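Why show two proteins at once? Because comparison is the fastest way to build intuition. When a single record is shown, students tend to memorize it. When two are placed side by side, the eye starts asking what differs. So, the first record is below.
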Amino acid sequence: MTAEKNSGSPKGESIYLAIGFLRRPHGVQGEVIMDLHTDFPDRIKSGRQVYIGEKHEAFTIDSARAHANGLLVRIRGFATPEASGRFRNQWVYVKSSEVPALPEGQHYKHELIGLTVMTDDDGKLGILNEVLETGANDVYVVQKDDGKEVLLPAIPDVVLEINMDDRVMKVHLIDGLLDDIKS
């Protein structure tokens, strides 16, 4: 089963992953302030193809450099603040098919969507349909068959195993979670 079938995207349509948010032009060289939404900011560099906005228009990064907690990026062909102003308040994406593989046992968050979540006593909990990013750890939103949602912290005590071949995540429900699920 491919990631596209489990992502909610129509078959054959690319899956786009947000890597940043363009805020406003900065300076006179056409650079734009970009908030980072990726664990791999070093991959945002000159020559990298990105897709900007809801229509995922393809552009090439001309330059990127560190600025405060983000980057200053210049899009090829947009060398003035007036020209680069068209990118204000838009998301920057890459195609999921263009990201490098992670080491064994690690997964991109979008790959987890659609996994069947089973408890350690082989009971079906539901389907993982969202990953929430919080300060301490991610939280997995699992939709049960009855439509109710269960929130699971993405910590080793709870997430025991992820089998991408079978598309199954095995979890251990700790005491507080058991009370929430029963109610």
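Second record. Ask yourself what differs from the first in the token line.
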Amino acid sequence: MAAVLLAAGCSDEPQTRPGTQLPPVVKLEMVAVAGEGFVQEEEVVGTVRPVLRAMVEARVPGRIEELRVVVGQVVRKGETLAVLDAREIRARLDSANAVLEQSVKDLERITRLVRDGAATASELDAVQARQAVAVAAAAEAATLLDQTRIAAPFDGVVTRKLADVGDLATPGRGLFEVEDPARLRFETDLSEALLPRIRPGAAFPVRVGDRSDPIRATVVEVSPVSDPVSCSFRVKFDLPAGEGLRSGQFGRVLVPTGGESVLHVPTTAVLRRGQLEFVQVVADGAVRLRLVRTGRLAGGRVELVAGIRPGERVAAVANGQWADGQSVEGAR
């Protein structure tokens, strides 16, 4: 008996004595329960990636003499990132220039001799050929010397530094990683079942990080072949600029898989007591508490899976102070 009295005293429902008439509920906004279209969606995880990302390497071997950038530094296209020891290549260029200078003098001399009849045309051809070789050798050495200066391939930011001063740089070994943070994409792997719902140019909602609002992303690339291990297809979505996103962020793309008609009410119409969920049905001029089971949420409305029928009216905003069976003013 003591437990029953204690429970009654702690209840948040209005307590009425037998024969006591509660005042009617006034200004009650009601909504009719009706079937509405609900789009089924599947969330697929993915990652934000830059459109432009390059691993910068040395094109000629050489000892790193100078590093001019650090991780996180913004760089412009053509800006020097590192400088290699160029003494050997500079010596080759000096030698090639010397040979070229001598070949020019030889060509001038043989040209005079041919004009005076003291040399043959075949001798002139041989000197001209040697000069062409000297020009090519000098141009090659100048190009190699220019390649000892490692430059940024595009405007971006340095995201990784993989070498230090004194290291030996060789072709094929990455020194820096540069990304363009202004142009980003969302990349994910979709199963074969979802692939028919994806087409280039279509827009899909993408949720990135802890953002509550989705971002509209456009499909720009769909891989024609699947990954041999996961049997999934790589799909890339262009993300709009100016959203404050970063490369490497985790996200989810919502892919519609179908639709159905379900019963919905505003989320404010559901009254929760512990783990139980109720709506307040208005019928025969009174409000009645009805146990229901809810489902998915979408746009401020919640799906009612069980406990309600189409056409029934419920309170748009549930009120825990109303007593079960309390009359509703103006309701029929």
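One difference worth noting in the second protein: The first strand starts at residue 30 and ends at 32.
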